[in-house]
Records
---
Amino acid sequence: MSGPYYCNPLNLPYRYQLFGRGEGRSAYREAADPSLVFFRDRYYLFSSMTDGFFTGSDLCNWDFHPFTEEIPIHDYAPDACVIDGELWFCASRGGMNGAFYHSPDPVNIPFRMIPASFGFWDPHLFCDDDGRLYFFWGCSNKKPLWGVELERGTMRPLCDPVGLIWGHPERHGFERFGENNRDCGKMPYIEGPWMTKHNGKYFLQYAAPATEYNIYSDGVYVADVPLGPYRPAEINPYTHQPGGFISGSGHGSTLKDVRGRYWHTDTLGISRSHPYERRLGLWRAGFDHRGALFCDQRFGDWPHSVDAPLWSDPEWMLLSYGKPVQVSSGKDPQSAVDESIRTWWSASDDDPRPRITVDLLNIRLVHAVQINFADEGLSPDPGPEARWSRHLSVPRVIEERPLYTRWMLETSKDGRRWDVLADKRACLTDLPHDLIINGTGISARYLRLTVTELPYGQTARISGLRVFGKASGCPPQKARIREARRLPLDGLLRWEAERSTGACVCWGPDPDRLYHSMMVYGQQSAVITALLAGQPAWARVDCFNESGVTRGDAALLCESE
């Protein structure tokens, strides 16, 4: 497959957030609420708590640009929009009036500010084909998403705000609160609007129910005019990623690139050190032959080429799941290969040379390795030059000092002779989810990671030493469905399949439109919690192992008696 590769979470230098002073201080990494736009031959990516923005030419390799002017860096949900040859930007601090910023060249020309005349959370600017400008916002479990038309130039409202989308967890399974949608006594937060226009229709996307849960998703409503009325789209949710290595997929943006392909970027969750410990993800999206908006999240946290066709099987298979691990010290070594970013191997605090080795049990052709570092119990001193937040209830700093994540990765066929696959012992980068690609492949049985430097001198922790490539042998047997039933908003599937490591379970309203998916490892059952009341649901189980994927047959989920 040609083209560069990406793997979720995206390979970015996620910034540390430092909270509090004295003994009560803490720290974690965060980036969220991404806005991705194409402007002047470059992609621009903005995200919360980043103190700057990224640019790139291929959606895989990014250059960071710190803000050089007075920008409210602690405001959440930065939005980006291209209007009349300029890039416009705004963010939010609920209950306070914000501002709009614009620049013809943000990398070289500072943003100019236009004060807003009203307050908002989670903003989104949308310029229609006729030049009229609209503004959407909202982040509440009691109030709707709002929309208004703005006067260009002054950015003042031309009408009263219009309520557009409310939460309906009684009809939308994915809007139900809590982990696995199981805290059903609370109303969902409806937040993070983003507008996409297609064939004269307006597709207003929103996030629900809350960012800290594995079922954080994006839904979508459709209207004939920008300020509605809106109706739920037939395909909902738009994004939903409840399982796999990293889960959650909400509050993001949709982009149409210069080749006419659609992309969606979203917020992924770890939420161990803090509820807002979050990362960014990217997937292909599009509109089908019936005008429905979809997002292809099948095998959504495995490596993908930017040129891979929609709905294609993975080019490389996961080789590291559940494999034997040896470590130099510490606890929970198998957590580095259990396909969960929320668990990790921790080296001993006094280990001078933390090292972890994964045994693939046989020589395999290795094409990609993703190295995922975890944070736990950090309390660094922000230092005297730190720029503290001015309006948050808890003092906060976005780390600006240079930090480095340094390591060496080696491979071996026999465990005695080792070859260096990647050496970052002298790098000037801080990449906690680094991705190493070798298109031709390296024959190896063992992979050994030696950690040499981490931010703040912290203990080495690896949540995923994920290895992808090719193995000889037979793909799994096709899944034999043993049970396929549903409650109004939930579905239950049980199947049998020999030689299967796991499955990607796909579902949707029709056998040929199974646009939703979830990853399942080490079991042959799945519970789907994102169904729509009154809508038929079909499901398919695509089983996989190290040798390939075997697609199943679609089955109708039947109502339980």
---
Amino acid sequence: MTYRAPLDDFRLLLNHVIGFDAVAGTDRFADATTDTVEAILSEAAKMCEEVLAPLNTNGDLDPAVLENGKVRTSKGFADGYQAIAEGGWVAVSADPEYGGMGLPMTVTSAVNDMMVSSCMSLHLNPLMTQGQIEALEHHASDEIKDLYLPKLVTGEWAGTMNLTEPQAGSDVGALSSKAEPNGDGTYSVTGQKIFISWGDNDFTENVCHLVLARLPDGVAGTKGISLFLVPRNIPDENGNPGTANSLKVVSVEHKMGIHGSPTCVMSFEGARGWLIGGEHDGMRAMFTMMNNARLGVGVQGVGIAERAYQQALAYANERKQGRSPEGTIIGHADVRRMLATMKSDTFAARAIALSLAVAIDMSNATGDAEWKARAAFLTPIAKAFGTDTGIAVANMGLQVHGGMGFIEETGAAQYVRDVRVTSIYEGTNGIQAMDLVGRKLLDGGEAAYRLLDEIEAFAESARATMPDLAEPVWQASENLRETTEALAARDIADRFAVAVPFLQGFARVLGGYFHLCAAMAKPDGAEAKLARFYITRLLPEHVGLLAHAREGGDDLMAISPDDLAV
């Protein structure tokens, strides 16, 4: 199936919905003019459509494997990666001092959206490197920056993130990996890490691992963890990959999806590493990379939703079954409902993700605490809603295909298999929701209320033009405000019990707001029709979700393990 980059959606969102003009109006991002961004996205779209999209099926059918201790990647992936690296798409937002474009994260997110739709398995490689670049920019010494960043920016070297261990998944503080000082400013890192995306490849000169480990005097838990940069090959005096480090890929996991992305078990056996950030301050440095990755994973959900929708739409326009005015199944009401749901939810999830990117850009450009708080607040929503949407849309796309969706030949099933992991890695969506109602409400809900104030102010301004759409959005925002106030007053256990429906309800209201913005910008277009569909049919779901969120946790925790026994 042919993929077409959704450039019209990006134009609408950037110019009329998410406030990107504020980003372009800052001194830091003054070069991100409309013409510049348009040219960049158009060029990225061409690469994605013509080079990456044809690799998607190859990655599924010809998975990465471990051969003689080395990872062999899927057919065509080396050429695809070369196109990404040569185009500068690894480092759209990286510091120009080290060769990056220095453009807003919003632009990077749009490019990533297209790369995911084209080939999610391959996209995971530059996504990990982007996160490592940002972590090193913020926390590494000048010597490390000068050596590693130019190579990561060009794509000559790739980066990974090593957190998880067999006994330490979401509970990172339970890790057992150790680091011993060598007396020369380096450390010997020992331990095993699992679920390492792109732990090795056969097309970059080096692979640079960021590894969490504990120094001998590190206390138990997350406060005793440090972060180390451990390259596959130790750079020589000229900065070129030299001798092999004491690490290896033990195995490559056999997975439900993203077969082209090697998910590795890594063994570090006294491997030489360099401290990133301060001693025992590894989690702060790693969270820089993780927050970048959480936005990236939310965008992965959006990208797969886009590809699944495009394929379902094409199939519905071609498949003849039953009688309809169009002569194909797109004329059947339920198929039309599914397609409208897929498209409108994908738009909502994309808008939320890009609005997070705008908040990150404004925080970086201005240093304003309110923008920083907004970025932190939106991160778990964008990650969870983006990936939940990707899963739901991919499943619905398979349903549109009917029996043929269950047949691998159509490719619809691959989207379901590939996207399913996104709600699990980089912090499960349940943990994202707990973060939202926990740390992100420590301000008493101020970041949430500022966002709701904006929604209500816009809805009030839209009442004169589109009262039938503006009023439900305003009412939904008020309902959400009351629920947020109630939740902020509760203890943390009660909040955790209802965290997921609260996050989902918040996302539904944000989706209604962004659809209203689109309808106001394009009142005579398809955008207004989709906004009406979303606001009248999907936005009302927030009522049930927030009713759930107001219930607290007593009745839930009253159900004992014995009560759940078969």
---
Amino acid sequence: MLQVQHLTINHTRDLRTILEDFSVTLNAGDKAVIIGEEGNGKSTLLKWIYDPNLIEDYTEAEGVRVTGAERLAYLPQQLPAEDAVRTVYEFFTEESLFAEIPPHKLARLAASLGLPSDLFYSDQPMGTLSGGEKVKVQLARLLLAEPTALLLDEPSNDIDIDALEYLERVIRGFSGIVLFISHDETLIERTANMVIHLEQVHRKQQCRHTVARMDYKTYAEKRLNAFEKQAQQAQSDARKKRIRDEKYRRILQSVDRAQVTINHAGKDNPDPMQAARNLKDKMHTVKSLKKRFEREDAQMTEKPVKENPIDFTLGENAVPIPAGKTVLDFTLPQLWTPDGACLLAKDIRLLVRGPEKVCITGKNGCGKTTLLKAIWEHLKNRTDIRAAYMPQNYADLLDLEKTPVDCICMRGDAEERTQVRTFLGALRFTTAEMEHPVSALSGGQQAKIFLLRLNLSGANVLLLDEPTRNFSPLSGPVIRKMLAGFPGSIISVSHDRKYIEEVCGTVRELTEDGLK
């Protein structure tokens, strides 16, 4: 059993509460997914559950953590810097049980993850592996330790579709506790039997959480139905209140007129005592109604407060691509690794016409990111189109020590900075977050900064490396709709099955013999 009791976490940088009086109990067989918008504290919660010391430099946390006899294993969102410089073999030897695992078991684990069987003994530095290979290797080491509770932060990031399906089997078949964060809606729908939803509403001034023991699809449907029902009831209550208030206003006017009449009549009033009693009765009625209405108002259904993921249109500054225009006619006889040590693929050709949405898929390490960079080099100086590139590693093009405003502004004048702040507000950034260095923001917030840069650039050809990897499952449908409606061309690399299905009209798999 893994238990959290009355946990409150305050963010010391933003001076806001990201979790308040949170309690949950997880038992063997629970597959709990933590969802919420970017920057809502999902990774912070997962880190605290694994080791409260991991978040003490930027938060103040108070609560009780009960792990009992559970053996916790934690997969971080990013490979730690100290592990990046180790060889793969050194990384595995950090796990004490590694030396005891027989070779055939290692080979079976490697095959299930789509890794070479000799990778465990490789002298390749961890930092040089592809994004998906890093996740697979870390996951393999976790499983070798035979934990009873898996805490996984974005295990689905960057891994290929075969590995995603393997991960689904691991989560479903794991006999212990699985607590994970993922932006892959398909993975969540197929594995989670419990949902922990963290929200920040009222411009991130109020936090709330929901713990629901049900699958994600059921939770999402019930949540939507509850919002719609509450909105309808609130609208009905507001309509009744308007009718009631109008009636009350007429009664008040009647009392005011009676008061004026008595005052004007003065001595000429044939029965001043009776008139006074009538007025007193009316005033008593008014006071009684006021108290009753105040009680009714206190019990009125409130308009539901919903944390909207994004309010933004991509491509509003872009010149649409004509249907017949050749956007890309790209050939590459050979694709090598960046260091030139290994031939990845040959005879590559990619033709893109009009506002086509193309996705390049393939196994981890096959060279998809390297190919996309080569296409970017081919397109970036074209004058008949305007191309823009979103890399898998945001630090390739973003100065992580700058603020979001400084990263986006091109001129830097007051008018532009005001415009950028307005856009960031539409992307759910608080004023405080606009002043943080980009490195202090979540991956999803960094992705939003890139989307805004792409939009303001006026680009009509987008090259996107894993564009949906850091967006929450709640933001995902909005992002996919935005990209599907983009008026230009998109050439992307992705393993997101919903993105491929809903956005991309053309899918190409990168193999050793080119794009298929």
